[in-house]
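User: Let's play a game. I give you a shape written as tokens, and you guess the letters that built it. Ready? Here's round one.
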């Protein structure tokens, strides 16, 4: 009877269909459990379900109030206190309190916490952003304190100026403790729940097909969200997503190949949307593979890849390439001594011979099975790099596997020989780009003994840069890190892209974030 009534309302044109928004996703979430994911699509979906302690102003990286209305640090920068909004409830009806915040943070931080989903869950993003877990020598967090019902305090082991922005990044949505305790290992999976305080609540997750979200009637942003329902359809192929957009079976999407910009501009029903650039797409070279243990070999590879031609061919005006790992918006932290490796196959071949590989070597190059803002067409880009490397006698064999395995297996010793990946910043601080990729131990690059790589000079420099409160001194330290990472050539920056998004013209209220994901709460369909 209910379905028949809904169908009748739609036929009568009472606006029911206009209350549903369909998003074309470039992949499927790994999990909907906060703090235990690193991939962009998981963050994107979680952003609709959960809120974070602090938020970012629409279209920028400027921190603003989220679940916390205010925050402040102690004079020595080691204690941060957050005051929460009052009267907010999770989607299961339980109240948001300082105890709930503590519950979430301690799950991410403490490997022995009994409420962690399972023993295999690594919560690795906490390790990457905050230096270590509870009991680790490098752990930034020392203690989480409940001051009163709506005040939570974080005691750190050392100053961390970017702490509010880091704890507010999209990985760390605050989930209902009751729902986690109830679901156990199923929480955040297709057979479990995902309960936050955000604009939409999870209704259904059909693996490989779609995720259905419905309006949270008790959302604390009055008048939001604008839509009653959001359907997130999994369409991995960029061409298929664009075709679906043209056909009107989806309303908006991300990660459109830059080559399709003209198609969007020519279609009167579609509109190109641009996400502010705040990313890096890179080629990682693993020293665990003997030829790549020599920095001369890695530098030769950097010189052999015609990055400018690749960027021009695959991104056009929507991409730039240079030698900096951080994006152009962080120019103040970049060294003027770093420009880029010269494209010079002859010089690269001579350097390779000097390192003992005059005839090249075999190399497995792994490319991502999904499109991302930094690599919208990864296989084709990998093929272009392989063609360039063949001039040095490097015999490239292209490899890939499903996305979840790709992310996990690169961290299993000895790791991939060479692989493509990228990073969209979570907050506007160079620490967020450097530490997850270069701080000791580096989780996805290995030494000859099969242990996670640690370049001590670089690791010590990054620790000092992240904990120094003075801006000018931090600039100097990160400029040194820029030079060191450039010379090491462990991760070769290929592109900083301006991601191309698209929507149908009747969709309004979309302000893409440079951080790679944004709430759908303000979107509506006319």
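Assistant: Ready! My guess for every position:
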């Amino acid at each position: 009877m209910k379905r028949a009534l809904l169908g009748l309302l739609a036929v009568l044109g009472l606006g029911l269909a206009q209350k549903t928004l369909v998003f074309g996703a470039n992949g499927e979430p790994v999990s909907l459990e906060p703090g235990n994911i690193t991939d962009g699509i998981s963050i994107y979906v979680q952003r609709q379900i959960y809120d974070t302690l602090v938020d970012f102003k629409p279209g920028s990286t400027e921190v603003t109030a989220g679940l916390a209305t205010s925050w402040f640090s102690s004079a020595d920068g080691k204690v941060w206190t957050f005051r929460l909004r009052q009267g907010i409830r999770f989607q299961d009806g339980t109240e948001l309190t300082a105890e709930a915040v503590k519950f979430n943070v301690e799950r991410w931080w403490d490997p022995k916490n009994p409420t962690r989903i399972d023993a295999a869950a690594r919560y690795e993003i906490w390790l990457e952003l905050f230096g270590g877990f509870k009991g680790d020598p490098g752990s930034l967090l020392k203690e989480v304190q409940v001051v009163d019902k709506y005040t939570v305090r974080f005691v750190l082991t050392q100053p961390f100026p970017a702490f509010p922005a880091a704890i507010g990044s999209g990985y760390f949505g605050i989930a209902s403790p009751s729902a986690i305790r109830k679901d156990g290992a199923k929480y955040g999976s297709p057979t479990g729940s995902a309960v936050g305080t955000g604009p939409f609540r999870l209704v259904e997750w059909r693996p490989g097909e779609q995720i259905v979200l419905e309006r949270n009637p008790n959302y604390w942003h009055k008048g939001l969200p604008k839509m009653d329902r959001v359907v997130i359809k999994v369409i991995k192929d960029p061409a298929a997503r664009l075709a679906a957009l043209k056909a009107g079976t989806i309303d908006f999407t991300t990660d459109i190949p830059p080559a399709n910009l003209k198609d969007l501009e020519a279609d009167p029903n579609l509109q190109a949307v641009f996400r502010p650039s705040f990313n890096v797409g890179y080629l990682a070279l693993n020293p665990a593979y003997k030829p790549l243990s020599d920095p001369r070999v890695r530098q030769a590879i950097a010189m052999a890849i015609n990055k400018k031609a690749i960027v021009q061919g695959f991104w056009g005006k929507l991409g730039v390439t240079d030698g900096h790992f951080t994006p152009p918006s962080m120019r103040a932290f970049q060294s003027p001594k770093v420009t880029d490796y010269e494209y010079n196959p002859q010089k690269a071949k001579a350097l390779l011979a000097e390192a003992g590989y005059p005839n090249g070597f075999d190399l497995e190059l792994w490319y991502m099975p999904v499109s991302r803002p930094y690599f919208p067409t990864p296989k084709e880009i990998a093929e272009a790099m392989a063609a360039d490397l063949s001039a040095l006698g490097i015999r490239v064999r292209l490899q890939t596997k499903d996305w979840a395995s790709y992310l996990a297996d690169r961290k299993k010793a000895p790791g991939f020989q060479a692989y493509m990946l990228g990073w969209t910043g979570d907050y506007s601080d160079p620490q967020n780009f450097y530490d997850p990729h270069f701080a000791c131990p580096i989780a996805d690059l290995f030494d000859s003994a099969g242990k996670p790589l640690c370049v001590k000079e670089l690791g010590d420099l990054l620790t000092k840069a992240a904990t120094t409160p003075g801006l000018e001194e931090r600039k100097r330290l990160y400029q040194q890190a820029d030079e060191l990472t450039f010379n090491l050539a462990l991760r070769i920056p290929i592109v900083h892209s301006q991601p191309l998004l698209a929507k149908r013209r009747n969709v309004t209220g979309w302000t893409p974030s440079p951080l790679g994901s944004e709430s759908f709460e303000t979107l509506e369909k006319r």
